[in-house]
Amino acid sequence: MKQTIKDLLQIPIQNQEVSVKGWVRNERDSGEVAFIVMNDGSTPKTLQIVVDFNKIPREQVAPIKVGACLHVKGKLVASAGKGQDREVLAESIEIYGLANPNEYPFQPKKHSLEFVRENAHLRSRTATFGAVFRIRHTLAYAIHKYFNDNGFYYVHSPIITASDAEGAGEMFQVTTLPLQNIPKNEQGEVDFKQDFFGRSTNLTVSGQLEAELMALGLGKVYTFGPTFRAENSNTTRHLAEFWMIEPEMAFYELQDNMDLAEDFVKYVIGYALEHCAEDLDILEKRLLDEEKSKKQEERSPMPLLEKLKFVTQNPFERLTYTEAIEILLASPYHKKKKFQFEVKWGIDLQSEHERYLVEKHFQKPVILTNYPKEIKAFYMKQNEDGKTVRAMDVLFPGIGEIIGGSQREENYEKLKNRMEELGISTQELWWYLDTRKFGTAPHSGFGLGFERLVQFVTGMGNIRDVIPFPRYPKGAEF
Ligand code: ATP
Ligand code: MG
Ligand code: MG
Ligand code: MG
Q1: What is the pLDDT confidence band of residue 469, given thresholds at 50, 70 and 90?
Q2: Mutate to test the pocket of ligand 1, among 164, 171, 401 (most ligand atoms within 8 A of CB)
Q3: 125-169+205-465: CATH, from 3.30.420.10, 3.40.50.2300, 3.40.50.970, 3.30.930.10
Q4: Whose CA is nearest to atom 2 of ligand 1?
Q5: Ligand 1 neighbour 279 (Cβ under 6 A)
Q6: What's the pTM?
Q7: Are strands 388-396 and 366-372 parallel, antiparallel or unpaired?
Q8: What is the complex's ipTM, to 2 decimals?
Q9: Which of the residues 171, 300, 386, 432 could staple to 202 if both were Cys, CB 3.0 to 4.6 A apart?
Q10: Would you say domain 5-109 falls under CATH 3.40.33.10?
């Protein structure tokens, strides 16, 4: 295996010949020598290259500026300079690609996130986004590890589907035209590229219904894949394409579902704390810098690392939707009319309400249960009161809703009636109803928005900054 900068930073220093490939983060000509600081993405750290002009002529080094890509061969030696224990004395430099400093957007100075977003195609080269994407990777790995270690099977739910799992009508159509309007080829056949073989289909909004089919046979399963919502996602919490983790478990009731959600989230955040310390450090410093320019009351009460540790070490608050409404009604925010949206039993909680509960009232993550059935999806198990369903939402500080889940309605008649009440086609979802007709079982599951988790762990304020290729109304260029 070829050595990366991460490897070179860990091996013993023995004046040995090494080869470094990577991008220039900084360079400085100090008269007799040049210092070139390189990073290759394998680590948040950089490696310093020292170029002696007696060995490599200055003219060869002069065009090497920030952003250039190099292959350096040289000796790994102890460094006398501050800030690093080692450096490479260059013996040869091959330039893979130069970067014109008048055009390359990322210079060593600090750039605003807005500026980086405008140059998103090159942002994997920056320290901040290197950290974000490495953490995203580690979280994804931790998620698979958690489920694997706990006896869950990874199942792959379809991207193209005929069902609207949420019944919320937020689907991107794969088929847009009525069959008779679809263009035909010379042989008179419909163009299957435009009609998906003559069927009305859409991009999935959730893999839940399919995951239920698998759980009611395999026991414990999870999906982890892209989902799509045709919503006007101009918020810092919504994307048109996002990744969702959806565990689904036979024989789990709401309580078990909550226990799993809490244990799972704590595990993956703990895993990132343990394995991404250097990347988290970079992000915490960036956030502390950013905080300085904010007003006192807008500042985060805890630095990033402390906040993550707090979440992994303290129990989440659990209460019902009805109790939450009572708290909101009794709050000084309600009395002083500081909420933009009205608070009363039956409303779908707005982000301002969720954040009040989490950030002001409890100051820790909260799990809300037993929501009014009118604001939740058709598949949730109905409570005896006839008004609420066994839903659970997990709310996080700075984010709001991070998980939505429920115990599922396992009773065939009740499920069918609810679908009919809501005008959801029982014919189209015959396969779903079949699971309740044959050997039905209590079962539960939830959906965690992966990007919201990454946002929480990295402290990034905008969801578009935690996915490599954000999709939103104006964002689908590459
Ligand atoms: P919200 O109330 O924030 O719009 P939701 O209730 O519509 O979310 P669910 O259908 O419950 O979302 O989906 C489960 C999880 O998926 C949510 O808790 C959230 O973490 C995530 N999620 C939902 N919509 C989006 C989106 N457009 N972009 C990113 N993540 C999302
Ligand atoms: Mg939504
Ligand atoms: Mg919601
Ligand atoms: Mg939800």
Answers
A1: very high
A2: 401
A3: 3.30.930.10
A4: 401
A5: no
A6: 0.95
A7: antiparallel
A8: 0.99
A9: 171
A10: no
